C-alpha cells in the first residue's frame, strides 16, 4: 500500500511481482507525457509497495491516453479509455495508486464513494454531480497555474496600491504648490521601507468584497442541492459584489491586494475552457466502494436502488454530456477506476452493461509481514521517518532498530488476523500507540536519542495484540 501514509488513507500496499531492477530513471525535466509505462511504475514504486499488477494496468492506461492524443482525425474520437476495476481489501493501496497516478499526470482527479449516490427518486446525490465536482477541481488547478504566471505583475500592482494607501494623493491639489503635489520621491522612500518589511505592522484600510457572488442552487429530485450556472452578478450588478472597508496590517493588505490583482489579470473564460479540456481529455475519477452498489439478483428493497445507481452511472462511464456552470463537459475520454473489496458481493453482481465498461480487472493482494516491513522502511516518507521528523522538532533523535520494525510488522499481521483486516492502516494505529508516551513527554525532555527496539515494542503493544476485545476498541 502506500509507502508514506497515515490515518484513513494511510499507506498500505501489497508486495506483488517485483519490478525489473533496470527501470529507466525519470529526470525531473522529462515531459510527463513521454513517460514509458516502466517509468510510471517506477514513480509509483516510490509511494506504493508492491501491487505490480495494478501499477502496470494504470501505467498502460495513462500511456494509452497519450497515444490517443497523438492520433489525428476521427480515429482519436473512436478510441475510448479502458476503465479499470480494482478488487482488494481495504488498506492495500487501491486509492493511493489512483491518487498518485493523477498527481503524476497532473490531471484533474476526484475520489468519490459510489455508495453516496442514489437512483433518481431517492434521497441522495445525482451521479452527474461527480463531473461537476471534477470541473471545480480542474478550474482550481488552472487558476493556480494562471496565478503563478501573473504573480510578478500582480505583486507590482499590489505594491503600487499599497503605496497609494500609505501616501495618498492630496484631496485638494489645486490649493497646493507643484512641489507639494509631487509625491514621487516620498513614495519611493516608502517603497524601500515597504520592501524591507519595516511597514508590515502598520494598519491600512482597504476595500474587500463582502462575499463572492453566489451561484444559484436548487433542490433536485434526489433531494440534494445542485448548482445552476446563472451569473447573478451580471443580472443584478448592484446587488452582489459589494465592497466594504476593512482595517488590516500592511502584510495582510499585500496578500489581499495581490489576490485581487491576480483575479483581474486572469481571463476567467479561458480558465473555464482550459479546465473543461483537461477534464475531457485527462480527467480521472476513482469510484470507491463500487461493491456497495452491486445488488444480488432478485434482491428487494435497497437492492433496487443499488441497481438504479449502476444504471445512472452507466451513461457517465459510457460517455455522455454533462451540464456544468462552466459549460457542457463530455465524459467520453475520462478514465474511471472503480474499486471495491467485494466481500459480500462479487464483480458479476454488477449489471452486465457496467461490467462491460470496466474491462480491465486487477486483484490486489493482502498484506503480509514482509510487506509491512517494506512499508515502514522503504518509502521516502515512511511512518518511521515521519515520526522521527516530528520528534526532531523537540530535540529528540528517534531511531528504530531492525528488530523493532520486524516486531511492529508481526504485531500488525497478528492484530489484522484477530480483528478486522484494515491492511497497512493498522501500522498507523500501532505506531501512534507505540510512541504515545514519547510524544506526550517530548516537550519536557532534554535533547537526547531515543532508540526503539523489539523489547520496547513488545512492552508497549503486546497486551493490546493479545487481548482481542481490547484491540477492537484501541485499534
Explain what this protein looks like in three dimensions.
This protein is of the alpha/beta class and 475 residues long. 48% of the residues lie in helices and 13% in strands. The strands form 5 sheets. A 5-stranded parallel β-sheet has the order 2-7-10-1-11, with helices on both faces. A two-stranded antiparallel sheet has the order 3-6. The protein has a two-stranded antiparallel sheet with strand order 4-5. α2 packs parallel to α4 and α16 (402-418) packs across α17.
Keywords:
alpha/beta, 475 residues, five-stranded parallel β-sheet, 20 helices, 13% strand
Outline:
The protein has 475 residues and is an alpha/beta fold. The protein is built from 20 helices and 13 strands.
Shape: flat
Task: Give a quick account of the main beta sheet: strands, pairing sense, barrel closure.
Answer: 5 strands, parallel
Oligomeric state of the chains present here: single chain
User: Strand share of the residues?
Assistant: 5-15%
Q: Percent helix among the residues?
A: 40-55%
What structural category do the secondary elements indicate? Answer: alpha/beta
What's the count of strands?
13
Q: Give the integer mean of the pLDDT values.
A: 77
- The total count of helices amounts to 20
List the strand order in the largest sheet.
Answer: 2-7-10-1-11
Q: If you compute it from the alpha carbons, what radius of gyration comes out, rounded to the nearest whole angstrom?
A: 28 Å
Task: State the end-to-end CA separation.
Answer: 19 Å
Query: Uncertain segments of ≥5 residues (pLDDT<50)?
Result: 1-31, 176-181, 218-226
